């Protein structure tokens, strides 16, 4: 495997109010297709985690014709880290939600509906990992390939609005999650075309989530954070 050379400009962040912004002239899909996505993202994470020594951060991808990668880290003191739960919903196959929220399983990843039924898809590594940088090369390149494939398969060409991976205290779940967010209207339009089987599944998921014990087991207790907002 050849090691791609990543332009230095892609790896020099601009300062923004809550962190950094990296800009890349290619889209995520182009990066994956050209087989340079994992090399680029690995080097970018090295800049953040090693050069700047930032371990707690919110990574957010947004794209129009090119890709913007935001690293938010300056409000880490306000974050409380993952909720305490008795099970890992991304690992424990015995939880009621596991099979209902699971969309597909790949060699290194699982794709899910959001366990709280928000307009997003979730991608997790099969292994119980906490950070992107803990992945092996194979896991890491599969992860981004699978993210693009999943979003395309479910919603068509690059229509996602953002992709988010939280690290350290920015996490709400221990197990690493990639959240692929969609505009509400895009989501609702797609939902109309879902099979009856899938619609039933979502309904079943909603019913399960109304049971307090199941909700708390999977997501922790529904209390408010110190600012009085819902966690
Ligand atoms: Zn896990
Ligand atoms: Zn853990």
From TrEMBL:
For this protein, the record's InterPro entries field holds: HIT-like_sf
Designated name of the protein: Uncharacterized protein
Origin organism of this chain?
Answer: Didymodactylos carnosus
């Amino acid at each position: 495997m050849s090691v791609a050379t990543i332009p230095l400009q892609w790896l020099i962040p601009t300062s923004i109010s809550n962190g950094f912004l990296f800009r890349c002239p290619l889209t995520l899909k182009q990066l994956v297709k050209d087989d340079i996505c994992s090399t680029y993202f690995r080097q970018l994470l090295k800049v953040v985690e090693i050069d700047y020594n930032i371990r707690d951060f919110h990574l957010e991808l947004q794209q129009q014709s090119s890709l913007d990668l935001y690293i938010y880290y300056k409000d880490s003191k306000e974050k409380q880290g993952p909720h305490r739960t008795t099970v890992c919903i991304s690992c424990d196959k015995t939880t009621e939600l596991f099979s209902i929220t699971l969309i597909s399983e790949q060699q290194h990843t699982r794709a899910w509906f959001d366990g709280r039924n928000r307009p997003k898809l979730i991608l997790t590594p099969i292994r119980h990992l906490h950070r992107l940088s803990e992945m092996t090369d194979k896991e890491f390149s599969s992860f981004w390939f699978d993210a693009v494939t999943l979003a395309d398969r479910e919603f068509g060409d690059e229509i996602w609005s953002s992709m988010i991976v939280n690290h350290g205290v920015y996490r709400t779940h221990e197990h690493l999650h990639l959240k692929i967010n969609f505009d509400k209207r895009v989501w609702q339009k797609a939902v109309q075309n879902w099979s009856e089987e899938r619609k039933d599944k979502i309904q079943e998921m909603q019913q399960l989530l109304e049971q307090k014990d199941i909700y708390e087991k999977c997501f922790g207790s529904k209390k408010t954070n110190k600012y009085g907002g819902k966690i």
